[in-house]
RNA sequence: GCGGGCGUGAUGGAAUGGUAGACAUACCAGACUUAAAAUCUGUUGGGCCUUGUGCCCGUGUGGGUUCGAGUCCCACCGCCCGCACCA
């Protein structure tokens, strides 16, 4: 009897699939299409278990859909632009392009042995000029429709390296390389006008029935629609004729609790004062220290500067409020100015306490007495409270009602107007870096900012660049910038900024439908293949990538690159959990962390005996080096074992901590299946009606349960059922024919997960053609219903006994049986039951 | 700080509001073997005693809704993800 040899089997069947061109996606009218897509990888150089998990899940769906008669599109590509390539060039020399393409070759080489049902003929990398040239064409079309424009935005500025830093490169407010204090500085940048679609992107979330509710909720909160009041405080003796400060508030009902007005350090008034007053300039400079992230700004110590200016309260001109410049007020939300109501906002409360400002409650809990506050009182807006300083509506009303009546009152009294605002900002796409898609723009002294001619695309990155000094190599390239103006033909300069890599990944799904078209898409192909029926990727992309992609689908429709049906490009989304692993690190002389790969760490020590610090269970990331190499598992046990293992241990949506312990067990199981099927194939046991029927029932139950698991992303549940069915087959005394039928079905049910082994067993058991193209087995409903069921009997909700009854026994009969049961008689002790609940086929509860 | 999620045996986890711990790992015991590996079989949440078709406790903590809560609601604790220049 032959042993299970993964290496032999896997190479053989991969070749067979390739010969049969089984996974090549071709448009065809005779089958329904199915487009399954996993988020494409960044070519870091090595695949890790997270990739294996992601692509195996997609592959299960793709193979299952193939078996259920679909025309499947399952492509793969590379999200190939980005910082790590430049960092590598700086750290170890070499060129980002060479580094990236060499990584892609390595990773493709690691992925192919996994036996994924991918149409490799559609592969591309976003750094291919063929791809990014079309992206430049899209940019020009977007610009044409007013969807791309320029304005100022703040960036992280490293004053020592004289360069822009990514948020990731700012550590505790300091530049990662120079260690200098980072400052926020304004630059002119390109933006996509995603804010035009705020309402639309929010409303359309309701149509995404097969998206996780949590993702939709996160996106809705991110878009952040709010209804509020915009109005002005009159400024007393403002500088340079400034006579008012516009504020926006979502809580106009708390206007009578106002105790100060705060403006952003970037507010025009602050900037005016900054020019005139050294103290203000000093304070604003202090506020601009640190990185640009919301997190950095919001967790920084709250600082205020009393400008000495005063404003009048809109309801009482005798009531004056001080004007502070405060570091926690963002210029790009609302008007960049707020009024503080310390009684009902904890941040304002802390601020008022610090600067000794009044704290006057506007409302108090219903039935309570007004009392001094020790912290802000911030009930949900849906809660009814008692207004003690209200000015519109009843004394007792909900916050929501009070806000609405306050807006009405203010509008009818000429104090501002109700407005709807969104938190979503326009998408800044300029990056002052080399390894990205060049923005196809020319700066001409006479014509200004002009788009490049489409026939000149792609604007290719120059190869001859150096990374020995910080900053963008395109800026210091001797000739690349020089060009002629597309409008007047005079000498002009190219834009040297490149695009955010999120742009690359915002339309790759569309490009896969026609990866080599000479326009961004081919409408006939897009019409056929769009939408992505199932998109699979990490929850970390819940907001940005998915929101940007939704915006791009709309923008591409307006510019004629996608059909209307693709307005929401992803019909169904599944967010897999992340693969986590411990992080191992030591410290360099300056105390900065140095990370180590798991394979270099044994028993908490490096090879030279140095003990490492261990950070438990963190997201696998190249930069932290807590990645695990699947190669070794594939070499030792085969791809099927790796695939089976990553699917079996954890629910797909949950994080999984990678451990080596399960791999061997997975291998043993596959070897066992191989053995069982081999035995079945050579069995000559005579038919046995009772045993045969029992095995067939188990088989149909397995078909039903495994199929249900695959369709609902319960791959771990499917695998548990496959274990149970394997045990049933192994133990069964059924006749040879039935056992062979069961073994064939087992192979088929396993085939999306372990395609190579399944092909081998299919052939061994005399299956027709390739299992990969065999029709998926159907469960016979009649074989799924048991004739008798075990009914647990609960007494006061606790299980105390059980009875076995025919599945279709009427409720009344069940009740009689239950009341006659010893345990029930004992519990009742002669009394009548208070209640008797019979849930047919499930449970009985007796309340005594 | 803000937004979102998760929390069940020694471990990964299962469980349309209906028998908590399926399925697996690990451990232990047994069979086979000169031995080991492999394989096969069986046990395993905690406690109590009267060892039973027994009782009590048990799904992060504390409350609540319900005939019945791991599941729904509220509060808290812990961990994870995102926060617009990491991808």
Automatic annotation (TrEMBL):
Compartment(s) where it occurs, according to its Swiss-Prot or TrEMBL record: Cytoplasm
Keyword Zinc-finger (UniProt): no
HAMAP family from the UniProt entry: Leu_tRNA_synth_B
GO cellular component: cytosol
Molecular-function GO term, any one: ATP binding
Listed name of the protein: Leucine--tRNA ligase
Residues involved in ATP binding: 622
Domain Methionyl/Leucyl tRNA synthetase: 36-170
Family per record: Belongs to the class-I aminoacyl-tRNA synthetase family.
Sequence motif: 'HIGH' region, positions: 41-51
Segments carrying motif 'KMSKS' region: 619-623
Pfam families linked: Anticodon_1, tRNA-synt_1, tRNA-synt_1_2, tRNA-synt_1g
EC category: ligase
GO biological process: leucyl-tRNA aminoacylation
Alphabetical UniProt keywords: Aminoacyl-tRNA synthetase, ATP-binding, Cytoplasm, Ligase, Nucleotide-binding, Protein biosynthesis
Residue intervals of the Leucyl-tRNA synthetase editing domain: 221-378
E.C. no: 6.1.1.4
Catalytic reaction(s) noted: tRNA(Leu) + L-leucine + ATP = L-leucyl-tRNA(Leu) + AMP + diphosphate
Entry annotated with the keyword ATP-binding: yes
Aminoacyl-tRNA synthetase class Ia domain: residues covered: 425-581, 619-658
SUPFAM superfamilies, per database record: Anticodon-binding domain of a subclass of class I aminoacyl-tRNA synthetases (SSF47323), Nucleotidylyl transferase (SSF52374), ValRS/IleRS/LeuRS editing domain (SSF50677)
Species this chain originates from: Thalassovita taeanensis
Methionyl/Valyl/Leucyl/Isoleucyl-tRNA synthetase anticodon-binding domain residues: 692-813
């Amino acid at each position: 009897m032959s042993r299970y040899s993964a290496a032999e089997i896997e190479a053989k069947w991969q070749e067979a699939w390739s010969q049969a061109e089984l996974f090549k996606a071709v448009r065809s009218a005779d089958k329904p299409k199915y487009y399954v897509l996993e988020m494409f990888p960044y070519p870091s150089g090595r695949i890790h278990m997270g990739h294996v998990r992601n692509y195996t899940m997609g592959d299960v769906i793709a193979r299952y859909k193939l078996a259920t008669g679909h025309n499947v599109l399952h492509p793969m590509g590379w999200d190939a632009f980005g910082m790590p390539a430049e960092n590598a060039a700086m750290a170890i020399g070499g060129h980002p392009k060479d580094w990236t393409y060499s990584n892609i070759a390595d990773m493709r080489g690691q992925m192919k042995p996994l036996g994924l049902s991918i149409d490799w003929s559609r592969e591309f990398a976003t750094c291919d000029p063929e791809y990014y040239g079309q992206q430049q064409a899209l940019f020009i079309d977007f610009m044409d429709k007013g969807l791309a424009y320029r304005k100022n935005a703040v960036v992280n500025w490293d004053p020592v390296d004289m360069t822009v830093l990514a948020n990731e490169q700012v550590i505790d407010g300091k530049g990662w390389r120079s260690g200098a204090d980072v400052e926020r500085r304004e630059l002119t940048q390109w933006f996509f006008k995603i804010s035009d679609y705020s309402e639309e992107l929010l409303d359309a979330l309701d149509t995404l029935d097969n998206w996780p509710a949590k993702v939709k909720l996160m996106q809705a909160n991110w878009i952040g629609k709010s209804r509020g009041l915009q109005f002005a405080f009159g400024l007393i003796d403002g500088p340079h004729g400034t006579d008012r400060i516009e504020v926006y508030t979502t809580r106009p009902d708390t206007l009578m609790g106002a105790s100060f007005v705060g403006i952003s350090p970037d507010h025009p008034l602050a900037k005016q004062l900054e020019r005139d007053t050294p103290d203000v300039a000093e304070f604003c400079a202090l506020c601009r220290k640190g990185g640009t992230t919301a997190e950095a700004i919001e967790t920084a110590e709250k600082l205020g500067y009393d400008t000495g200016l005063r404003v009048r309260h809109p309801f009482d001109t005798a009531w004056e409020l001080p004007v502070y410049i405060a570091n926690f007020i963002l210029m790009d939300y609302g008007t960049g100015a707020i009024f503080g109501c310390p009684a009902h906002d904890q941040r304002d409360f802390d601020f008022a306490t610090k600067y000794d400002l009044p704290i006057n409650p506007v409302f108090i809990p219903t039935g309570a007495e007004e009392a001094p506050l020790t912290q802000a009182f911030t009930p949900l807006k849906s809660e009814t409270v008692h207004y003690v300083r209200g000015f519109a509506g009843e004394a007792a009303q909900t916050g929501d009602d009070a806000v609405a009546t306050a807006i009405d009152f203010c509008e009818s009294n000429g104090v501002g107007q109700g407005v709807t605002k969104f938190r979503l900002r326009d998408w800044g796409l300029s990056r002052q870096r080399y390894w990205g898609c060049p923005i196809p723009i020319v700066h001409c002294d006479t014509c200004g900012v002009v788009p490049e001619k489409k026939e000149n695309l792609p604007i290719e990155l120059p190869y001859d660049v150096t990374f020995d000094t910080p900053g963008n190599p395109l800026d210091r390239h001797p000739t690349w910038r020089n060009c002629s103006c597309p409008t007047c033909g005079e000498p002009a300069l190219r834009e040297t900024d490149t695009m955010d890599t999120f742009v690359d990944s915002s339309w790759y799904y569309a490009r896969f439908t026609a990866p080599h078209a000479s326009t961004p898409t081919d409408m006939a192909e897009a019409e056929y293949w769009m939408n992505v029926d199932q998109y699979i990727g990490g929850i970390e992309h819940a907001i940005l990538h998915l929101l940007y992609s939704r915006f791009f689908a709309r923008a591409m429709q307006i510019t004629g690159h996608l059909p209307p049906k693709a307005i929401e490009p992803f019909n169904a989304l599944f967010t897999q959990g992340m693969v986590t692993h411990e992080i191992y690190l030591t410290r360099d002389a300056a105390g900065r962390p140095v990370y180590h790969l798991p394979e270099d760490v044994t028993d908490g020590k490096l090879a030279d005996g140095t003990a490492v610090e261990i950070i438990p269970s963190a997201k696998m990331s190249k930069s932290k080096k807590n990645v695990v190499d699947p190669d070794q598992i594939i070499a030792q046990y085969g791809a099927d074992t790796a695939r089976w293992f990553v699917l079996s241990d954890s629910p797909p949506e949950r994080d999984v901590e990678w451990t080596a312990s399960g791999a061997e067990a997975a291998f043993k199981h596959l070897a066992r299946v191989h053995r069982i099927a081999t035995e079945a194939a050579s069995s000559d046991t005579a038919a046995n009606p009772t045993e045969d029927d029992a095995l067939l029932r188990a088989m149909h139950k397995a078909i039903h349960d495994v199929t249900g698991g695959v369709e609902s992303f319960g791959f771990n549940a499917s695998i548990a059922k496959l274990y149970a069915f394997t045990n049933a087959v192994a133990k069964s005394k059924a006749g040879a024919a039935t056992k062979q039928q069961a073994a064939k079905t087992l192979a088929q049910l396993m085939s999306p997960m372990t395609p190579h082994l399944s092909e081998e067993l299919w052939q061994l058991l005399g299956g027709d053609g390739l299992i990969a193209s065999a029709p998926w087995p159907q469960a016979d409903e009649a074989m799924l219903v048991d004739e008798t069921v075990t009914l647990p009997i609960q007494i006061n909700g606790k299980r105390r006994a059980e009875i076995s009854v025919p599945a279709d026994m009427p409720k009344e009969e069940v009740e009689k049986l239950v009341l006659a049961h010893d345990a029930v008689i004992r519990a009742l002790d002669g009394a009548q039951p208070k209640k008797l609940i019979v849930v047919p086929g499930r449970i009985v509860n007796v309340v005594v």
